[in-house]
């Protein structure tokens, strides 16, 4: 059985305070349901990687980020996970007709920020596409490759703590698949709003990991009910929800974004009954 829920894109415009009323920042968002992915259209102090950052935790044969950070990110940082990140990047690029983003950012991007870069694949591809842009990409773990375009720089940073970049530092802020990592989505978007220059864009891509189907049968399968309940209970236990598709628009509105437009995409999960039956 394949799960095939809808996918949404959202565009939001944000006005700035009094002296800059005519200037706007915008946000473009898109969701795809995973069975939904959600894309909603960030200078930091840097230091050399301390040895404690590399002290990964080992749990049931998988490695996770160092306990130096406040965030208890739920997913591993090992080669198996990085391969999964790269595969996700490729299917999302196919889903978006070969595009790396949905926001209408134009061709004159000068500074871009990628939050939660993982393997760094999105930032690398974006830097290749915009060689004139300075691309900064952050993650909890230094798992990115060393041979990258000269206009990419990777930084170790926790997106849930106070961002140290200056106001209006970036033309484009991109973040993807942070579900299960963020305690306060409004605070996250407030920081993105602050570091995004007027006229710039913020894009946030998340998956709704509820299992769904066009004919409604997936929702009735006990195994999917159990899986959804485990994710829901796990998110509550760690204070970082996995189901964030309703938190995104709410957080964006509270951060100051307006005129929100949402577009949903379906993404098949597994094989359909027809394929299984030959």
From TrEMBL:
A matching Pfam family: Methyltransf_23
Entry's Gene Ontology molecular function annotations: methyltransferase activity
Xref: InterPro entries: SAM-dependent_MTases_sf
Family: Belongs to the methyltransferase superfamily. LaeA methyltransferase family.
Record's protein name: Methyltransferase domain-containing protein
Organism in which the protein naturally occurs: Gibberella moniliformis (strain M3125 / FGSC 7600) (Maize ear and stalk rot fungus)
